[in-house]
Design brief:
alpha+beta, eight-stranded mixed beta sheet, 22% strand, 8 helices, four-stranded antiparallel beta sheet
Length: 330
C-alpha cells in the first residue's frame, strides 16, 4: 500500500502534560521512522503570518529582473540572496524554479543579500521575524525527538543547533507548458540537514517516494526504479521531513525519504489546459552547527543495529553539498 503522510496535532506537546508530550513524541518517532514525513498542525506559527509570508514571496518574485539581479549572492555556493531559474541543479538537471534564500544574521560564513527598503519596503523586517518563528519550532521539534529517544539534557539534539544557522527559502515555480512525457519541476532528492519545514500553497505537486517500491536509498536510483505518491497540501499544516544528517545521527532509524516536485495531480482544474500553474512554497532547512561531528547516537546502534556510517563533520559535509547543488550563473 502506498505511504500516507501522517497528520499530527502538535498542540499537546506544546501545551499538554508530560504524558501528552511523551505520546506525541512517540507518534512523531514512529512516523519519521516509517514515512520520513509528517503533516504538523497546531504547530504554533500563526496562520496570518504564513499567509503574509506567501504575499511577500509573490511581491519579491514580481520584481523586475534588474531588481532581483541586485540581490544575487556574490557566489552561487554561498546560497544567500536571489537564485534564478536553472541556477540550481540536481544530477546536472536544472530545477525549474527561482528562489530567495536567507539565514541567521550571525552566520559569518554566509551573509545575507537583502533587497533595499526602497526596492521592497518591510520585507527584511518581516522575513527576519518569520525566520525566528521557524527557528523556535525547530527547537521544539528537536526537544520532541530527544524525548522520543529518551536522551538526557546533555545529549539532546538541540544543543548541536544552538547557533541556529538555518536557511529560509522562498521558492517560485513559474507557469510552464507541459512537455510530452510529463514534467519534473525539481528532480528527486533528499534534504541535507536535520529537519525541513515546508509551507505549501494550494497548487500542489510535491511527491514522496514509496520506499516499499525500491530497494535503493540513492535519489537517482529511486527516481528511476521507485514509485511516488502525491502529497496534497492541507491548509494550516506544515510538512516536516527528515534530512540526511538526522538519518545518519539516528543510524537510519528516521528516514530521509526521497521526494520531488512534478505537475500537480489536478492541474487542469487550476487554469489553462496546456500550462502547469505557477506554484509557491516556503522551505526552512535546519542543520547542525558547523563544528558538530555527526555519528550514530548510542541509543540507535548496538549488536542488533550496527553503525551504518562513519562520523562526518556537519560543516564540511554541508559545504560540499551546497557547492555541488549550485551551478555558476552566466
Amino acid at each position: 500500500m502506498p505511504p500516507t503522510v501522517p497528520s499530527i496535532d502538535f498542540k499537546p506537546f506544546l501545551h499538554g502534560s508530560a504524558g501528552d508530550r511523551q505520546r506525541i513524541a512517540s507518534e512523531i518517532d514512529e512516523a519519521l521512522g516509517s514515512v520520513g514525513f509528517i503533516q504538523l498542525h497546531n504547530h504554533g506559527i500563526e496562520q496570518h503570518k504564513v499567509d503574509d509570508c506567501f504575499q511577500w514571496s509573490k511581491r519579491l518574485f514580481a520584481l523586475s529582473e534588474a531588481g532581483k539581479g541586485s540581490i544575487r549572492p556574490s557566489s552561487p555556493s554561498r546560497n544567500r540572496g536571489y537564485s534564478g531559474i536553472g541556477n540550481e541543479k540536481v544530477r546536472d538537471r536544472m530545477c525549474m524554479k527561482e528562489s530567495f534564500n536567507c539565514g541567521n544574521p550571525k552566520d559569518l560564513e554566509r551573509d545575507n543579500s537583502w533587497p533595499t527598503e526602497e526596492l521592497l519596503p518591510g520585507f527584511r523586517h518581516f522575513t527576519e521575524d518569520f525566520y525566528q518563528d521557524c527557528a523556535q519550532l525547530i527547537d521544539q521539534l528537536l526537544q520532541c525527538l530527544s524525548l522520543a529517544l529518551n536522551l538526557s539534557p546533555k545529549d539532546s539534539l538541540g544543543q548541536y543547533h544552538a547557533s541556529s544557522l538555518f536557511d529560509l527559502s522562498f521558492i517560485h515555480y513559474p507557469t510552464v507548458s507541459l512537455p510530452s512525457g510529463g514534467l519534473t519541476r525539481n528532480p528527486a532528492h533528499s534534504d541535507f540537514g536535520t529537519l525541513t519545514l515546508l509551507f505549501q500553497d494550494e497548487v500542489g505537486g510535491l511527491e514522496v517516494a514509496d520506499t516499499s517500491s525500491t530497494n535503493s536509498e540513492i535519489s537517482g536510483r529511486v527516481e528511476r526504479s521507485g514509485s511516488f505518491v502525491h502529497v496534497d497540501p492541507k491548509p494550516g499544516t506544515i510538512l516536516v521531513n527528515v534530512g540526511y544528517l538526522l538519518m545518519r545521527w539516528s543510524n537510519g532509524h528516521w528516514k530521509d525519504t526521497v521526494h520531488r516536485v512534478s505537475e500537480p495531480p489536478h492541474w487542469k482544474d487550476q487554469g489553462s489546459a496546456d500550462a502547469i500553474p505557477e506554484r509557491y512554497s516556503i522551505a526552512y532547512f535546519s542543520a547542525p552547527d558547523p563544528a558538530t561531528v555527526v555519528e550514530a547516537l548510542p541509543c540507535c546502534c548496538g549488536d542488533q543495529a550496527p553503525n551504518r556510517w562513519k562520523s562526518v563533520n556537519a560543516g564540511d559535509y554541508l559545504r560540499r553539498k551546497r557547492a555541488a547543488l549550485y551551478a555558476q550563473e552566466a
